[in-house]
Design goal:
The chain is an alpha/beta fold. Helices cover about 50% and strands about 15% of the residues. The longest helix is centred in the middle third of the chain and has 29 residues, at about 100-130.
Length: about 270
């Protein structure tokens, strides 16, 4: 896909990977970028940063609610005529395992899984009618492997990858392109914390949101399904498929390292 003159919607667009995507789409010549996030002021701030021929529009959106995603697509379509690319990028992480509450499970499921479903339901009809469109769903390397300190994140990101696969299988021959973004550590607030100095077992190999955005644009140009800003994730995935028992043992060691790091931070 050539992003020039396209209309793009990005959820979670006010910060982190989402903000970097919005700026990168503008740099690549998108006709319009719709910045969707919970914070209206932050949406508008990012929209105002967009340069060149790109028109920016900030739209406050709670992606856990289907009606708000439907309204987002409707507003973008009414303003710009159509939506060519929908980046379902918003996501959260909640730490914990068996101590997690039903309310926490429900919340993370709504944002990390159902938001992708709501986005597809909202935008696919017009894309199928035109015979073309692009869906970019942000998951995580945890959706291919595991997040050792969060059962909820692991499960929901696996579901996000599975849904993206299903979309591509179902609609790939109907002009709909699908990519699934699966980074490891990215230097955003999710990884580094609000203060920007939290240490994680993923910190050492982390990449910038701008690098992730560049990787997304390249993958879209090549129309590749799996986007891996950390190429080593493919090696880990191949090792997992080749010997699951050995992979699980290795992940237990990673879990131990993560727990030791958290214990040292707590001193």
């Amino acid at each position: 896909m050539d992003i020039r003159n396209k209309v793009v919607v990005v959820t979670g667009g006010a910060q982190g990977i989402g903000r970097a995507l919005c700026l990168r789409f503008a740099q690549a010549g998108a006709r319009a970028v719709v910045v969707a996030d919970l914070d209206q002021a932050a949406c508008e701030a990012v929209a105002s940063e967009l340069s060149g021929p790109t028109t920016g529009l900030g739209v406050k959106t709670d992606v856990s609610k289907e009606a708000e995603i439907q309204q987002l697509v409707q507003r973008a379509t009414e303003r710009f005529g159509q939506v060519d690319v929908f980046c379902s990028n918003a996501g959260i992480i909640l730490r914990g395992g068996m101590d997690a509450t039903p309310e926490q499970w429900q919340r993370i499921h709504e944002i990390n899984v159902m938001a992708h479903v709501w986005a597809a339901r909202a935008v696919l009809p017009q894309m199928l009618a035109r015979g073309e469109g692009y869906l970019v769903n942000t998951a995580s390397a945890a959706g291919l492997l595991a997040q050792v300190d969060s059962a909820m994140y692991t499960v929901t990101k696996h579901a996000a990858v599975a849904f993206a696969e299903w979309l591509s299988i179902t609609y790939g021959d109907k002009g709909i392109r699908v990519s699934c973004l699966c980074p490891q550590g990215v230097r955003t607030e999710m990884l580094l914390g609000k203060g920007g100095n939290r240490q994680s077992f993923l910190s050492a190999g982390s990449v910038s949101p701008e690098q992730v955005a560049d990787d997304v644009l390249k993958a879209m140009h090549d129309e590749k399904f799996l986007i891996l800003p950390h190429p080593e994730v493919l090696t880990y995935l191949q090792r997992k498929a080749a010997d699951v028992e050995r992979w699980i043992r290795g992940m237990r060691r990673v879990r131990d390292q993560a727990e030791q790091m958290r214990a040292q931070e707590g001193r």
